[in-house]
């Protein structure tokens, strides 16, 4: 069946533009038309931008002049998560606290994409300040999963994932603090990458957990994710945590990959159909000539607990500036204390307030040793454990999620929602790159819902991740 322009991948659209089968204007118009038609029911976008005629014309001229030498992203319409700054555009982080904040500069990743000639469709919905696993915690309404609108798209980059899965753009950027790219990628049937910490600049991304956050791609294929990652990666003088290529030992991509599986950690928590799809994928990879290696990661059982100490502590620190006096929503009471209380109570939603309070508690005198410092010690031990495991394998594989997309309100208990991150937080704690890519479907209420396989690699070994993702894609 012939695809409409908005259904194309980055690679397919780039080929069509260079072959003059399609113009940049036609590609833009197809994506905007789909977005305007479907967004009212999905709420993937918080704002669809008006056409930038100058940028569209410049992209077309560049493709016409440079042909095959033009960047692959030239003329490609992308969606951008609402916590990544675009000069002159609102960036609210889906919060009333920043509802009227308009960016005065471009995030480094946006500057790189503009240099490559990419176009921006709009800003996508998310859990407020990236705190959530379902995109239910947005101040501006929940986003619906295109595969079943009664279910969540995942979070916190659920708006970006839904926009790509519903073909309301060609690809998108999200941010990932504990799985916020990979989990929605799994629930929406996409490939999502959390790069090595420091591989992509965080300058111009509204911070949640500064030692955990990374910007990365949400795309229809591993090839598209690789194209986007290559465009946004690199050292940035505006972000002192960015790292040069080659900082970590190089990992060659072998023809026969060794895939580590920590079976003891899967336990009974994974739903039966997810486990069956995961085991079937491993069996197919083994039949294709790759090796399955059992690995032990005992500290990983404590990763989620460590994450939910470290992350709120950093949230508490990062959001302290949003007090209605220095920055953010300002409400005025009878006293200065009332000003603070009203501004932060009105500006922040319940989940954000919960994490600020938890983070303030674990950093407080008398508790910092009992909680925060123990969590950071566990984090260091976890990293060493993974490094030892990678002496025996090239990647480590899990299911991305415990189950397919759940229904709205099904995880109203915060603890049950936090458990959705159980397989994804380790990559953020260790700083290692991780990727989710589709591995089949599970049936719920008569609908086939996507599932994802989660892959973690050593630092700066994204090429290995893409190779395994390509191998998994070849099985479908």
Overview of this protein structure:
The chain is an alpha/beta fold and 476 residues long. It has a domain at 5-232: Amidase signature (AS) enzymes (Alpha-Beta Complex), CATH 3.90.1300. It contains 16 helices and eleven strands. It has helices spanning 10-18, 24-42, 53-66, 108-115, 158-165, 182-188, 222-232, 263-266, 272-287, 303-318, 336-347, 350-362, 368-389, 414-418, 425-430, 462-475; strands at residues 45-48, 77-81, 119-124, 171-176, 191-194, 214-219, 258-261, 291-294, 395-399, 434-444, 447-456. It has an eleven-stranded mixed sheet with strand order 1-3-2-4-6-5-10-11-9-7-8, with helices on both faces. Helix 4 (108-115) links the parallel strand 2 (77-81) and strand 3 (119-124).
**Continuous helix count:** 16
As a percent range, the share of strand residues is: 5-15%
Could you spell the SSE succession in H and E letters? HHEHEHEHEHEEHEHHEHHHHEHHEEH
End-to-end CA span: 18 Å
Q: Give the name of the CATH superfamily of the domain at 5-232.
A: Amidase signature (AS) domain
Strand arrangement in the largest pleated sheet: 1-3-2-4-6-5-10-11-9-7-8
Would you tell me which CATH topology of the domain at 5-232 applies? Amidase signature (AS) enzymes
Based on CA atoms alone, the radius of gyration comes out at 21 Å
- Basic shape: globular
Low-confidence stretches: none
The number of strands is 11
Structural class: alpha/beta
Average pLDDT, rounded to a whole number, is: 96
CATH C-level class of the domain at 5-232: Alpha Beta
